[in-house]
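Priority: medium. Attachment 1 of 2:
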């Protein structure tokens, strides 16, 4: 009997060893801007793998910016290097879709049932649609806000409890802050890198990038002229120096700049880097046209690239998880972006109590009704279009061209890059 039991035990071990382990699906994920998103991605992926032990998330080398990220994906598309999932700037979804790179998520949404019950309203889904196709799911969305150094505002004779509500007020107070001396500057406006902050001025004036049928440039109209004149006045009257993006951010957190205008997505890093050096506040960004003005929706969407059916099912699970209530509850406190999932925004389990306890984050939340899509230029020259706009903005900041000259040159260059019908 003893020998028989030993035989059964050995047989059991043999069968266990021979049985194949549960298959593991490995997904390679690419994302941009690790300064904003590395900790967020690590947290989300760890939680996802705990809940989905049959799926492993690995990360490709992240890209420094949205622009670098889209160029990487365009270069890798259709090759073995292409990741299974990526996170693409909302204004570049059109570009990848025109080359049929992303997987259409409509069949997954139809199979899943009521997405609104999961916090994905029609308005949220539309943020990552191109021509009616569901190219991705909005992951991190943002709008531009005003950061300010309350100590410098107070020293310059302003009331930090009543921040400026118009660009005239910002520019006047920025000039007074610069006049304090000691290497202090009035304003840092994040014009570098892409056209997003120019869009904030343009849309804030009620303008648009192209005309209705997208055949001609419209940003050089009256609204665009007002927008670029505000930038010019920031330089001449408001104490806006010529700084790189990084140098501007460093100067602000060091207490050397009164007002900073950039994405709310930088808020968590700004809070951390300011520490206790000064009294940091946030407020709404002024609108040139307070009645009709809008704000561009910045941020990115999670996009599925893999054509492997098994990987697509796993990728859909990850995309929904990252863009869902848990993902939003990590993204918002971890960065400053606004919630792109309605369950996350309303539920005490996620962010329901967060905004009451963290007033610096409220400015962006309160501006959400003003948000419209970050404009995506048609055709394959989107990156060149952006570069043209930025290069001409730099001429205004450097005072090497008048606002009208820079605007006219940008319009002519962009029009030459638009697709021909």
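Attachment 2 of 2:
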């Amino acid at each position: 009997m003893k020998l028989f039991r030993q035989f059964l035990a050995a047989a059991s071990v043999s069968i266990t060893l021979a049985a194949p382990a549960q298959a593991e699906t490995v997904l390679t994920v690419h994302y941009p801007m690790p300064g904003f998103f590395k900790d967020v991605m690590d947290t989300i992926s760890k939680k996802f793998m705990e809940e989905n032990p049959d799926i492993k998330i690995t990360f490709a080398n992240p890209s420094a910016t949205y622009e670098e990220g889209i160029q990487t994906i365009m270069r890798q598309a259709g090759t073995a290097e292409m990741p299974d999932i990526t996170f693409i700037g909302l204004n570049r979804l059109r570009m990848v879709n025109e080359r049929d790179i992303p997987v259409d998520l409509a069949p997954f949404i139809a199979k899943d049932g009521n997405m609104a019950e999961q916090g994905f309203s029609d308005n949220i889904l539309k943020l990552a649609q191109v021509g009616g196709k569901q190219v991705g799911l909005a992951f991190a969305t943002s709008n531009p806000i005003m950061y300010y150094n309350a100590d410098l505002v107070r020293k310059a004779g302003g009331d930090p409890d009543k921040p400026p509500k118009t660009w005239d007020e910002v520019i006047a107070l920025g000039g007074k802050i610069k006049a304090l001396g000691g290497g202090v500057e009035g304003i840092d406006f994040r014009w570098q890198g892409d056209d997003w902050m120019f869009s904030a001025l343009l849309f804030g004036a009620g303008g648009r990038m192209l005309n209705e049928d997208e055949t001609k440039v419209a940003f050089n109209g009256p609204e665009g002229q007002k927008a670029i004149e505000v930038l010019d006045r920031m330089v001449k009257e408001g104490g806006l120096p010529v700084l790189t993006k990084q140098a501007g951010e460093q100067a602000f957190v060091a207490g050397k700049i009164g007002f900073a205008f950039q994405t709310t997505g930088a808020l968590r890093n700004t809070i951390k880097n300011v520490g206790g050096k000064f009294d940091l506040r946030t407020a709404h960004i002024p609108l040139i046209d307070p009645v009709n003005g809008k704000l561009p929706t910045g941020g990115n969407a999670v996009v599925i690239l893999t054509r492997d059916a098994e990987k697509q099912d796993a990728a859909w699970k990850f995309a929904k998880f990252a863009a869902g209530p848990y993902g939003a509850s990590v993204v918002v406190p971890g960065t400053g972006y606004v919630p792109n999932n309605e369950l996350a925004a309303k539920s005490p389990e996620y962010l329901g109590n967060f905004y009451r306890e963290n007033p610096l984050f409220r400015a962006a939340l309160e501006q959400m009704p003003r948000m419209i899509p970050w404009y995506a230029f048609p055709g394959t020259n989107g990156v060149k279009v952006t570069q043209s706009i930025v290069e001409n903005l730099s001429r205004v900041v450097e005072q090497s061209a008048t606002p009208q000259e820079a605007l006219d040159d940008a319009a002519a260059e962009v029009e030459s890059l638009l697709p021909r019908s």
